Amino acid sequence: MKCWMHCNDPFSFRVDGAVREKYLELFKDRRFPASAMYVELHFSLTNDQELLELLADRVKNPDYDYIAKLSE
């Protein structure tokens, strides 16, 4: 069981590891958090149903605060 109090990165267990790594790669390419979110959302979808499912799933679609903290 993951713990909020003793984890080095308390947000890491909420987001899929592959998604987290994609954002880290985008930051290495000097992307800002907002543009990284845009790139990840718009280039990973093929239809409206996938967009709705992705937007509802915080494991695959972290909020802006998480992405901003990750970019620091």
What is the averaged pLDDT score? Answer: 76
Instruction: Return the string of H and E elements.
Output: HHHH
Global Rg: 13 Å
Q: N-to-C terminal Cα separation, in Å?
A: 26 Å
Task: Describe what this molecule looks like in 3D.
This protein is mainly α. The chain has one domain (17-71). The protein is 56% helix and 0% strand. The protein is built from four helices and no strands. The protein has helices at 17-28, 33-43, 48-56, 64-71. Helix 1 crosses helix 2. The protein is globular. It starts with 16 loop residues before the first helix and ends with a helix.
Topology:
Blueprint: H1 17-28, H2 33-43, H3 48-56, H4 64-71
Which key terms come to mind for this protein?
mainly alpha; 72 residues; 56% helix; disordered N terminus; globular
Q: In short, what is this structure?
A:
This protein has 72 residues and is an all-alpha fold. It has helices at residues 17-28, 33-43, 48-56, 64-71.
